[in-house]
Amino acid sequence: MPPTTLEDLPWNLRLVNRDHPLAADFAPSNLAELPDASWVEPHVNHRVDARIVEDLTAMLTAAEAAGTHPIICSSFRTYDYQENLFENRIERAEREEHLEGTEAEEAAAFWVAPPGASEHQTGLAVDIVDADYLELDEGQEETATQQWLMIHCAEYGFILRYPTDKSATTGIGYEPWHYRYVGKEAASAITQSSLCLEEWLVETYHIQA
Ligand SMILES: [Zn+2]
Questions:
Q1: Contacts within 8 Å (CB) and 24+ apart, 3-10
Q2: Which residue ranges does UniProt annotate as crossing the membrane (predicted)?
């Protein structure tokens, strides 16, 4: 039986966004710490869903073998940590854009997911930057690391989750560093379709996402 609701989807296709947030107490039961590697900064603990460690490691090993220098800068985040990030971004919108209340929240949510709405809480998403360019901005897409990852990530089960032309659908600005694990089969299908995860789930399973 193909899945007919979002709840029926397998773990690797779990949809998390502002319309489908996770509960505050949700955390993956099988978090695994990433082993020491050149893409893990010293004294930083990165945890992800244990089921993606092998493919993630294989992807970054291959990226390095191709001459690039990936660095993981974010992995699993708790609900509380995300709440902090979101509050900080709201304060920045108030300070720099002189927005207030709901307007400041909306502006913040385009760049930082509200608590519960971040894929990082699933343990299935990682932010990867180039060691020579640590900024989380559009310039990231020009780096050797992203150029390689964008072409090859699907071979390892990952998709670039927030493409530049899909902001209206995902509700999230372009993030050429946020990679989401969906498994090799889905990653290949999603990449070939040029759809974002929300659109692909609707088209493939006729699930309203
Ligand atoms: Zn991210």
A1: 3/205, 3/207, 4/205, 4/206, 4/207, 5/207, 6/201, 6/207, 6/209, 9/201, 9/205, 9/207, 10/183
A2: none
How far does residue 1's CA lie from ligand 1's centre (Å)? 32
Residues within 5 A (CB) of ion ligand 1: 127, 178
Going by pLDDT thresholds of 50, 70 and 90, the confidence category of residue 134 is: very high
For the structural domain made of 6-77+118-205, what CATH number should be given?
A: 3.30.1380.10
Catalytic residue flag (residue 175): yes
Catalytic residue (one of 155, 175, 198, 203):
175
What confidence tier does 144 reach under pLDDT thresholds 50, 70, 90? Answer: very high
Distance 122 CA to ligand 1 centre (A): 11
